[in-house]
Target: Methyltransferase type 11 domain-containing protein
Amino acid sequence: MSLEELGSTVGEEGSVDLVTVAQALHWFDLHTFYGHVKHVLRKPGGVFAAWCYREPVVNPSVDRVFDDLYRASAPFWDPARQIVDDEYATLSFPFRSVVQEGSEEEELTTDPIKFWAKKEMGLDGYMTYLRSWSAYQTANAA
Model:
């Protein structure tokens, strides 16, 4: 996307307060994407936030089966998936740091901030989640 297209579809230079990416940053050309984010973010004060989720935790019995499935699916994952497995900790974020609230000194950080999100789902929802994996899609196509 050119900067002209970016301006007409997302916002002009310095016009966006917040850019977020949920569970997709590992698919992007980060050099180009970060450049676009820097272009549209308001200066100062614009915020870029990215997050990913990890594997579900159910109970020890289900989790053991899940872990076996996840390991067995490894050949079907795109190598970019490793960034998610690393919980985005291996990515560089070329943006001004933010204050991590709750620390004694309220340090400036770009380190990942971990949080837990809980979602209850039944077996159908759990199976839908598994079928949403790119590895499942790749294996199914093969």
About this structure: The mean pLDDT is 87. The two ends are 32 Å apart (CA to CA).
